Amino acid sequence: MRDFFEGIAWLFENILFYPLDALRELELDSWFLANILNWIFLIVGLVAFFYWMKQLQKFNDRNEENRESTSHSFLG
Transmembrane stretches, by residue range (predicted)? Predict the structure, then answer.
């Protein structure tokens, strides 16, 4: 049973975390490249945010939302 868990540890330490180790070593040369995953997540989040705002604006322009105070039971 111990060999099984040591095998899992070896898999993660030597194979699955290798790209992250490479990014950590890259930090000494280029901070921006070392944080490329963060930049990708930031860009995806910003694109999703602006898409969401665009969709909300479309619904707002068409007056599809019931804005009365009784439209939601928890407000009245």
Answer: 31-52
Assess contact for 65 and 59: CB atoms under 8 A.
yes
* 32-66 exposure pattern, b = at least 16 Cβ within 10 A, e = fewer: eebeeeeeeeeeeeeeeeeeeeeeeeeeeeeeeee
Break the chain into its structural domains and give their ranges: 2-61
- Please enumerate in sequence order all residues whose Cβ is within 8 A of that of 76, keeping only pairs 6 or more positions apart, or say none: 69, 70
C-alpha to C-alpha distance for 52 and 5, rounded to whole angstroms: 44
DSSP 72: S
pLDDT digits (tens, 9 = 90+) for 9-51: 999 999 999 998 998 888 889 998 889 989 999 999 999 999 9
